[in-house]
Amino acid sequence: MEVDEKQKEITLNAGLAQGLSSGTRFAIYPLNTTNFSDKKLQQAIIEVTEVEASSSFTQVLEIDVGGIEIKGKIEQGSPAVMVSAPVDLVRRVRLFKDKQVGDKENELPSELVEKQQPALEAVRQALKDNGWVIELEPNDDQEAHYQVAVGRNGEYEICSGMPIKNLRPPLKIEQPDAPQTVVNRLVHLAKYQAVQELDNPASELAECLELELCDANKKPFSSWNNVTFKNRDIVHFRIKNNSFEPLNIAVFNLDPTWKISQYPIKRTSTPFYSLQSQEELFLGRIRLKVPEAEGYDQVTETIKLFATRGLADFRWLELPHLDEEFNKKGNLNGELENLVQNVPNRIASPLNSLLKIIGADIDVPPTVNRAMVYEPDPNSEWLVKEIRVTIKRF
Questions:
Q1: Is the pLDDT higher at 63 or at 124?
Q2: Are 91 and 189 a contacting pair, CB within 8 Å?
Q3: Which of 67, 204, 257, 316 is most deeply buried (CB count within 10 A of its CB)?
C-alpha cells in the first residue's frame, strides 16, 4: 500500500484480477494490528475510485461520507480490510416466508408454517450492516441471487433456483446461532461465486499462456471435458508461457466444500510465481479426491489459473471451508511490498519496467511525446484460464 504525502490518496496492490471495482471500501488500521474486529482501531475509510489490472487507486473519505474521523497519520504498508463489497459483487437475497401446508417439497408440515415469520425475521436482523449480501424488499422485482426459506425438516434452506447442495451441517431454526450462521454462509457463497465467475475473455494475453490437464505420466488428455475421474486418481497441470515476457501467475483450487486454496508452485507459497518467457512447468502430483462426508458421490472441482503482467497478491481470493472463520488478510499489502524489496530495481514486470524507463509515475499514464500517450488497458493486463473436472467415488 502506498500513501501520498497529503494523506488523501492510497494505492492498493489489488485490482481487476482480484474482482475489485469502483466503490469498494476498505478500513485502514495502524501498522502491526492483529485484531481487525475492533472497529475502534480503524484510522480511516477509503473508497476505490479507479481500478487497474493488479492495483487500485483510492481516496480517503471524510467523516460525513466514511462515517469515522480520520485518526493520525496513515503509514505506508498499513493493513487494509474490506468493509463493503463493490456493487457488482453484492449478492441479493429474498426471504421467503409464504410456504403453505402440504406434503410437496415446496410445502411445510402444519407445525412449521407459523414458525416461518419469526425464523426469517431473525435472519433479517442478522443481515443488517452486511456489505456483501442485501435483502430484497417484497415489492422489489430484481432477481435474487439467493432465497432463504424454512425447509420441511425445520431447517434453514438456501436456494439459488434449487436448494444449494453441500451446505452442511443443516441449521435448525431453533438453534440460537443459526440466523447468524445463515448470513455467514451467504457471505461465503457470495465470495466463492465471485471468484468462480471471475473471467476476462477479451484479454490480449489469451494466446500467451497454456493450461493443460495431464495424466499421472504427464501425458495430456485429448479432451478432459469428457473424462470422469475416479476418487484418488492422480493428475498434473501443464502451464507454459508462450509470450516474450514474464507473467506473474497463481493457481487456485475451488473445491466442492466451498473452500478456495492456492496451489504452491515449486513448493513455495508466495503471492505469485514469475513464469518466465517460454518456461514450462508441471503442477502436480495432484490427487483428486471426493470428500469423505455423506452425500458426496460425484463432485466437480475447478482449477483456476490467474496471470498478470503487473504485481498482484492473489491470496485475497482464498476462502476457508464453509462455517470456518474468514481469514484476516489485512497484512497482504505489506507482505507484497516486502517481496518487491527483493526484486532488483523494485521492478516486477515489463509493464512496470516500461513505466520506469520513460520516467512516468505509476499512477499517471506517461506521455511518450506530444502526439502519443501510452495508457495501458487494465483488462488487457490479466488473464484467467480454468479446467473443471468431474470426480466419482465409484
A1: 124
A2: yes
A3: 316
What is the CA 361 to chain-centroid distance, rounded?
A: 29
DSSP letter at 344 equals G
Strand partners, 69: none
pLDDT value of residue 77? 86
pTM > 0.70: yes or no:
yes
According to DSSP, the residues that pair with 26 across neighbouring strands are 46, 82
Q: Which helix (H) or strand (E) element contains residue 339?
A: helix 332-340
Separation CA 93–CA 158 (nearest Å): 9
The string of pLDDT tens digits covering residues 328-359 is 555 555 555 665 566 543 333 332 332 222 22
Torsion, CA 56, CA 60, CA 63, CA 64, rounded to 10: -60
The SS3 of residue 314 is helix
What is the SS3 assignment for 53-112?
Answer: CCCEEEEECCHHHHCCCCCCCCCCCCCEEEEECCHHHCEEEEECCCCCECCCCCCECHHH
Structural domains present in the chain: 2-89 (2.40.10), 91-197 (3.40.50), 209-311+380-392 (2.60.40.10)
Burial code (b: 16+ CB inside 10 Å, e: under 16) for 357-384 equals: eeebebeeebeeeeeeeeeeebbebbbb
Which of 208, 172, 186, 178 is closest to 85 using CA atoms?
Answer: 186
